[in-house]
Amino acid sequence: MTDDTAATVPPFDPPAPDSPPAVRPPVSPDDSHDLAGELVRRIEDRRARVLIVGQGYVGLPVAMRAVEVGFDVVGLEASPERAAALASGSSYVADVPDEQLRTALASGYRPVNDPAEIGPFDVAVITVPTPLNDGAPDLAYVEDAAATLARRLRAGALVVLESTTYPGTTDELMRPLLEQSGLKGGTEFFVGYSPERIDPGNPRWGFVNTPKVVSGIDDDSLRCVEAFYGALVDKVVPVGSTAEAELVKLLENTFRHVNIALVNELAMFADSLGIDIWGAIDAASSKPFGYMRFTPGPGVGGHCLPIDPSYLSWRVKRRLGQTFRFVELANDVNEHMPDYVITRAMNVLNRNKQALNGSRVLVLGLSYKAGTSDWRESPSIAVVERLLAMGADVRACEPYLPEAGGPALPAPVVDCTPDEVAAADLVILLVDHPDFPLDEIAEHACLLLDTKGVMRPRRFNGETL
Ligand SMILES: NC(=O)c1ccc[n+]([C@@H]2O[C@H](COP(=O)([O-])OP(=O)(O)OC[C@H]3O[C@@H](n4cnc5c(N)ncnc54)[C@H](O)[C@@H]3O)[C@@H](O)[C@H]2O)c1
Question: Among the listed ranges 14-28, 216-230, 296-310, 313-327, which one has the minimum average pLDDT value?
Fold first, then answer.
């Protein structure tokens, strides 16, 4: 799709990347109305040029969908290796197959590594990391991305933040950074926040059919954000402010984090009491109202659960001087789970008159959850490190290991063959990848510790967490 309407956008020559921002004459409220209306029209007829900043687990699927519905899309990616992989049609995101990437490359998708190559944009979406640094939010990537956009911002453009962050970031941090362009947010350009709800590996709920929460710093901004995401997904859910939308994401993840911690703590007590927690969870799940099923496991991982609730508790502490006790408690329980897995591994070996020290242990699954190659914050890595520290001889099976750019693994990775399973003194199932041959594992494992409850319908020698 070509840009045949640039003349309808008020002309504004962006300053060169490293020069001070240009000052642009103020725009009247009437113009502002026209700017929003013009952008909505450009979105509706797909003339809007889209820029996605950050081509990771979140940004790449957004870029793919935007191309699919007919936009020209630039994907700015700071990592030269990732940008080169994308340009060569090789995807590192499990939910984006190479074939989809190659189709996108042939129909309007352009990955770039150098901000100088992004060209003019009408809609920019920021999907960069928001890690924790010593327990505090690290918004350096968001700041960098906003500064890059400010240097190239044109009147009438929309900038949306999708990175998970504490309530207030879009309006208090990102908008002022963008205003260093000399343009005024809400009048001369539009600003919004829309949390990502991607669930890697989920075959039922994907980007298109998962409702998307959208927000803007004012009515015109919200109108533009709704128009853009309305073009990408089946249903948008507008909320009253960007802070509200930021809180939605943290509420959703804190809810999961706390409920997982609840069943993890219950699992530990139930084992000591000699009660089958899994049977109790199955029975409770038969209640058609007022209960939601969560299951125990070796801890929480990925980019969301171990990090996002701490963004909220940090904000509560900073702004109100109070402790978000649920988050602190959930962190405490979930972070303890790898140690608990080690204790259970020692106990199961001990009952077999064996010690962890010197035993051969086969770990099944290294990623943070089933069906994904994402190993960030994975509790499996913590379990492997602890096993090695205890003197175990560890091997790991991970069918989703990426060919390039994977983690520096602390143990050799092997295929999940009957021989490997049988050669281990203890097999520990940490991730319920759909690819694991569970019947074969149950048959050949000398001893098995199942931390995900997937072996329960089978006969095996060992126990479930
Ligand atoms: N992964 C998930 O399942 C998920 C789900 C919901 C929300 N989120 C949130 O979305 C955000 C992004 O997460 P992700 O999983 O996609 O991270 P990611 O690390 O996979 O991708 C982010 C990409 O941004 C690039 N980047 C960093 N700074 C940049 C810059 N200034 N310009 C261009 N590229 C830049 C990085 O090189 C990286 O490739 C985070 O805030 C995360 O919390 C993630």
Answer: 14-28
